TrEMBL record:
Biased composition (Basic and acidic residues): 1-12, 26-35
Region (Disordered): 1-48
Name of the protein this chain belongs to: Uncharacterized protein
């Protein structure tokens, strides 16, 4: 027996198909089988934690990790350096608004991006000193 949406029970014969349809033998119609609701979707994957944020920050402040070998001779350590450089660049780009991103998108290195943002928001040393003097007085 199959329970219909209306609550009525009918006898059926199962039809082997992927649609999981049943036939109401009393009327010859195809009916959908009532099933329990689908389980809730799993939660989205958590953002992986940064394993070594100090290393990423040093790349941002000091510049990219350089590799002087040809690509064919790269070791696993060299590939990790390239990966860290890319993570630092991605980290920087994802933290910005579209307008800020447009300002720095042409930069080649993360350090260049950081220096441009620093100059944009803090200004040169002379400007910083003047601001401090105004705030102090």
């Amino acid at each position: 027996m199959v329970e219909l949406r209306s609550g009525r029970h009918v006898e059926n014969e199962e039809i082997p198909s992927e649609s999981r349809a049943c036939v109401d033998t009393s009327r010859g119609r195809t009916l959908e089988r009532l099933e329990a609701p689908a389980p809730p979707a799993p939660p989205p994957p958590r953002i992986r934690e940064l394993r070594n944020p100090a290393k990423l920050w040093s790349i941002i402040e000091d510049g990219d990790l350089l590799i002087s070998k040809p690509k064919e001779e790269w070791t696993d350590e060299d590939i990790k350096k390239i990966s860290l450089n890319n993570k630092a660049k991605s980290f920087m780009c994802c933290a910005l608004t579209r307008q800020e991103f447009n300002r720095i998108s042409a930069c080649k290195s993360v350090k260049e991006m950081w220096d441009k943002l620093k100059l944009t928001y803090e200004g040169k040393d002379k400007v910083k000193e003047t601001r401090i003097d105004i705030l102090v007085t």
